[in-house]
Design brief:
With about 120 residues, this protein is mainly β. The protein has strands spanning about 5, 10, 20-25, 35-40, 45-50, 55-60, 65-70, 75-80, 90-95, 115-120. Helices cover about 0% and strands about 45% of the residues.
């Protein structure tokens, strides 16, 4: 069982930046495709970034060009650098596996996530 802990969220003005971290209890990046998810109040959790086992990264159009994901295998940690933040980015951000979490939200036990609030 792998534990994942998100951190780095906070309150930021539109146009600002935040860097999120996802610490894992062991290295799994070469075994499982990973993802960054977000859930706004009253909305479904959505996958916004997918990190493949080979390191290739896919971004949802809503964050493409503004968010940059990375991973540090030695530290068992992946990151999400968020720039040019918009109010619509406000959500709780989670990290987890791509499969099966992206296909079935109920298939995964989600952590607490980290709150990102973009407001003036």
């Amino acid at each position: 069982q792998v534990q994942l802990v998100e951190s780095g969220g906070g309150l930021v003005q539109p146009g600002g930046s935040l860097r999120l971290s996802c610490a894992t209890s062991r290295n799994i990046f070469e075994i499982y495709a990973m993802g960054w998810y977000r859930q706004a109040p009253g909305k479904k959790r959505e996958l916004v970034v997918r990190i493949h086992t080979d390191g290739k990264i896919d971004y949802d159009d809503s964050v493409k060009g503004r968010f940059t994901a990375s991973r540090d295998n030695a530290k068992n940690t992946m990151y999400l650098q968020m720039n040019s933040l918009k109010p619509e980015d406000t959500a709780v951000y989670f990290c987890s596996q791509d499969y099966p979490c992206a296909l079935d939200d109920k298939a995964c036990s989600w952590g607490q996530g980290t709150q990102v609030t973009v407001s003036s």
